[in-house]
């Protein structure tokens, strides 16, 4: 991955998601719902041109860091985010079990 690229992750709270842009070009999203005060990441989508470059991991890391910086907690139904959390532990302090209302459920957003 070219380290000269400008990578931005921006929350779009009106759409319940974080957008990833690379050099100003839309690259992907991680969607969420807030359930019982917990930010639950529900779906990750990358544009084909940006797949396989580690950008989804950067996006998820920055999105979780943003929630943590505001004093929030996170959980995930999204398989990518769930797997990422098992391999990356820098945010363990803000990861909580799924809220009871959705435990075991797999939420998908209309994107």
Question: Can you give me a brief rundown of this structure?
Answer:
This protein is α+β, with helices and mostly antiparallel strands. It contains two helices and five strands, in the order ββββαβα.
Word description of this protein:
With 111 residues, this protein is α+β, with helices and mostly antiparallel strands. 22% of the residues lie in helices and 32% in strands. It has a 5-stranded mixed β-sheet with strand order 1-2-3-4-5. The longest helix has 15 residues, at 55-69. Residues 104-111 have low confidence and may be disordered.
Task: Please outline the helices and strands.
Elements: E1 7-12, E2 17-22, E3 25-35, E4 38-46, H1 55-69, E5 73-76, H2 79-87
Parallel strand pairs: 4-5
Antiparallel strand pairs: 1-2, 2-3, 3-4
List keywords for this structure.
disordered C terminus; 5 strands; single chain; 22% helix; alpha+beta; globular; 32% strand; 111 residues; five-stranded mixed β-sheet
Helix content: 10-25%
Question: What structural class do helix, strand and pairing data support?
Answer: alpha+beta
Main sheet: strands, sense, barrel: 5 strands, mixed
In total, how many beta strands?
5
Q: Average pLDDT, to the nearest integer?
A: 89
């Amino acid at each position: 991955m070219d380290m000269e690229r400008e990578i931005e992750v921006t929350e779009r709270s009106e759409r319940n998601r974080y957008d990833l842009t690379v050099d100003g070009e839309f690259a992907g999203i991680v969607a969420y719902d807030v359930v019982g005060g917990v930010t639950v990441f529900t779906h990750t989508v990358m544009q084909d041109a940006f797949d396989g470059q580690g950008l989804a991991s950067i996006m998820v890391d920055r999105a979780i860091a943003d929630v943590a910086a505001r004093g929030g907690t996170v959980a995930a139904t999204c398989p990518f985010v769930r797997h990422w959390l098992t391999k990356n532990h820098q945010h363990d302090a803000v990861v909580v079990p799924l809220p009871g209302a959705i435990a075991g459920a797999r939420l998908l957003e209309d994107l």
